[in-house]
Predict the 3D structure of the following.
Amino acid sequence: MRDETRMLLDSVGRLFEDHCTKDVADKAETGTFPAALWHAVSETGVPLAALPESAGGADAEWSDLFAVLRVAGRFAAPIPLAETMLAAWVASAAGLEVSEQPMSVGPVRADDRLTLARDGNGWRLTGRASRLPWAAQAGRIVLLADGPDGEMAVALDSVAGIDVAPGRNMAGEPRDTLTFAGVPLAGDAVAPIGDGVDRAALYRRGALARAVLMAGAMDRALDTAVTYAGERKQFGRPIAKFQAVQQQLAVMAGQVAAAGAAADAGIEALSLDDPAMQEFLIASAKTRVGDAATLASEIAHQVHGAIGFTKEYSLQLSTRRLWSWRDEFGGEVEWAARVGAFICARGADALWPTLTDG
């Protein structure tokens, strides 16, 4: 890890530790957006750091920003950090204005489709974007839609005139469904997508972001379980002294390590020029991390017993996010099918080289 990356992660780690308290997370679940937390994160420049300097960014490496997302996942940060990064990437590439406010991006489901039609000097948007993160609270929503000549990027500064069905995931994070019935848009709110940006690329990066966030949440869940096992006593000694508990914690640690390695491989895939290989590695990451999240959450709650499910205890902040994030931007079943399709298309002789050549 580069010294600059280590310094960045140390800095954001301290920031989240100071501002991302359990009280902040609990209030966010009741509908109170953590404005102070977002302001502190925004002041670092991280949400827009991947953009070129001409667009207000810092030309930061995506690998560094995804590493920041792992820290955010560790602290269960109730803000749309990943979504803002992705929205800024899509908007900037299309030449649309980027906001320093929290942003949302979509579609986030593979089967959602939005359509643009010309309307004089403007446009009309039709379709549905399901389960958009923080859509009703975002300062700007960036969407990809099918236009007359291909995919287009759309920027919305308000949900006025749009049918919004509020929703939340299991972690209490906003997931709003927006239905567009020919919503009128100004001409400058729509632009052709930029190089390297399309619906498939957004879906891949969204899946990778969720995998990285889950890797961070599992890091925290493991630390919480190990600490609890060392403090909780039964029959006169800590339960961590019992072989059965030690074995379960060892299994959990293995799953967390595997998830972290898979997420790192997915991040490295962003530097590849081959979209098919990039998707294979990101699909592998989302699949492996999703599998690990299921088992790690199960073991963490087994170690804690009933207390781990209580609102007052912090473990559920991590595990409820794991259960939610594993299904967002495609669950492990969907991504596992993509892994299988990639391998089958290359043929049996290519299987071993694909797995070992890096």
